[in-house]
Design brief:
This protein has eleven helices and 21 strands. It is of the alpha+beta class. GO terms for molecular function: hydrolase activity.
Length: 434
């Protein structure tokens, strides 16, 4: 997108976003609504932000027809009953599944095998298969199944036919196994091929008998976990959940990850823009009570990655992102959800964006606004957590994955540690000062 086209798009979208006074009026809503009658209820224990295939993620036509997909997800909350949500959001033809099962893996590092005694079928209206129309999502029948907090769950799909345009999450960082034929109920999959995507999985909910709140991490590749360990569950969101589990006031809080690598706030980069997916990926998440917004570095980097832009174009972009974040907060408050803002982490030296002084000034301006505008209910200073004190526009080498844009596992742990847990319990509203 050229600078001129971006300015036109930004200006048009700005007309749709609320003013600061409108947003502050929304802040009068209760962020801790009373639990409704009729507990128990379903709350999200795991989610995936969905996208259409792109580039190297695009499979040949018919590639998944007649295949068994065995996929592992890492839950947050545990429970005695669960339901699996499946999606054909981006499909242009029906997704037909003959068999869907859940099981416990035999080891912490997936090898395609399951504990046979743990195997159970997922039914849909009492039947062992389902057809999901294009653009639709379905939930399996509630299943009596005991899972502990932080457990892995294996979900196997026997695919009769699938649309050529699959619905997936590309950055699973979890090994998926694929084998021709119906093997959903088999203990192992010898000869299976592997990749690191999740296909057709939207979420796993557990039935909760208390008002268990869900924290939704909403962002791009840094939330998605680029630089984390495959099958290691060491994204900052995983580290945050483990930290919450260790503290009695927060050990019933779930953390779900709605990050998409390469995602942008305002324009189509990878996956739907944040402004388009906020409803589905935050407001519609079962049990959501807090959203952590950490996104925008791709918008800033894409602006001048190919050619320099005028200062006015940079200023317009920052203003539009502030307006988008303001609307996120207003929409969250309208749904009884607390909104926390995360500052954008350092990126100088990035081998992908090669940010110049103006792009870095944009990041600093946006971070200053996040910290000081009072728009968010609280601020998590991820920037301060991982930056190099000697070169604050760079990430500290110990926290850097090596590309100078994404943290590695040590950096993700530092990000998880940056959250003041009082912001999740309602005892300390406003900005945090650690």
């Amino acid at each position: 997108m050229t600078g001129a086209r971006m300015m036109i798009a930004l200006g048009a979208a700005l007309l749709l976003l609320p003013t600061a006074s409108m947003m502050h009026a929304q802040r009068e809503v209760s962020l801790q609504p009373a639990a409704p009658a009729g507990w128990p209820r379903w709350v999200a224990s795991w989610t995936a932000a969905l996208e259409a295939p792109y580039g190297s993620e695009t499979l040949p036509a018919g590639a998944l027809k007649g295949m068994t997909l065995r996929e592992t997800v890492h839950l947050s909350l545990g429970g005695n009953r669960l339901q699996v949500r499946l999606s054909n959001l981006f499909g242009e033809a029906s997704l037909v599944l003959r068999n869907v099962t859940v099981a416990v893996p035999t080891s912490a590092r997936p090898d395609g095998s399951i504990v046979p005694a743990s195997w159970k079928p997922v039914l849909f209206g009492g039947q062992p298969g389902v057809t999901i129309a294009p653009g639709q999502e379905v939930a399996g029948d509630p299943l009596n199944y005991n899972v502990r907090p932080g457990a892995d769950l294996v979900i196997s799909l026997d695919v009769t036919s699938a649309p050529d345009k699959q619905t997936l999450h590309a950055g699973a960082r979890a090994t998926e196994f694929l084998l021709a034929g119906d093997h959903a109920d088999e203990a192992s999959l010898p000869g299976a091929t592997t990749n690191t995507r999740w296909y057709f999985l939207s979420g796993v909910d557990v039935e909760e008998r208390t008002a268990a709140p869900v924290v939704v991490a909403f962002g791009d590749s840094i939330t998605d976990g680029h630089g984390a360990t495959t099958d290691g569950n060491d994204r900052w969101t995983d580290d945050l959940f483990r930290r919450l589990q260790a503290a009695s006031p927060t050990n019933s809080v779930a953390v779900v990850n709605e990050g998409i690598g390469g995602n942008c706030v305002l324009q189509v980069c990878v996956g739907p823009p944040a402004t388009e997916r906020f409803q589905r990926d935050v407001l519609d998440v079962p049990g959501a009570k807090t959203v952590i917004v950490l996104e925008g570095i791709n918008d800033l980097g894409a602006l001048s990655r190919k050619e320099p832009q005028a200062a006015a174009v940079h200023a317009a972009l920052v203003q539009q992102m502030e307006a988008a974040f303001t609307k996120f907060v207003a929409d969250a408050h309208a749904h009884g959800i607390r909104a926390l803002g995360g500052t954008l982490t350092p990126w100088m030296g990035s081998e992908y964006y090669h940010p110049d002084a103006q792009a870095e000034a944009d990041r600093m301006a946006l971070n200053t606004w996040i910290r000081t505008s009072g728009t968010f209910d609280g601020v998590i200073d991820f920037d301060a957590a991982v930056r190099d004190p000697q070169r604050p526009d760079h990430m500290l080498p110990a926290y850097d994955s090596g590309d100078h844009l994404h943290p590695g596992p040590a950096g993700y742990q530092k990000m998880a540690d940056a959250l003041n847990l009082n912001l999740l319990t309602g005892t300390e509203p406003g900005d945090i000062r650690r």
